[in-house]
Amino acid sequence: MRAVTAAKSKNLAYLPGARGGRPWQKRLIMGLILVVVLYFGLLFAAQYWRLVQFRQTLDDIDAQIASARAQNEEMQAEIERLHSPAYLEEMARQELGMVRSGELLFFFQKPDNLPQ
What we know:
Blueprint: H1 2-13, H2 23-82, H3 85-96
C-alpha cells in the first residue's frame, strides 16, 4: 500500500495546475480585489468630502440664523420702545415739532440765515 500511495502522490505532484493553480487566475483575482477595494475607497472619499461640505454649509446657515435672531431681538426692542408713551412723545416733539397744549415753541435761526 505504501508503494501505491507514494506513486499516487508522485503523480499528483506533477499534474499540471496541481502546484498552486494557474498564475493568470491569481493575478485576475488579485486585480479584481484591488479594483473592488479602490472602488469602495473612492466611494468613501467622495462621501466624506460631501460630509465636509454639508458641515460647512450647516455652519454658514447657523451663522445666518444667529444673525437673524439678533436682528429680531433688536426689532422686538424697537417695538417695545414704540409702544412706550414717553418715546412716542419724544419722537413727536423731535420729528414733528409738536408741543403740549399751553407750551410755547421757539424757533431760533442760525446766525448764517439772519437777514443783513
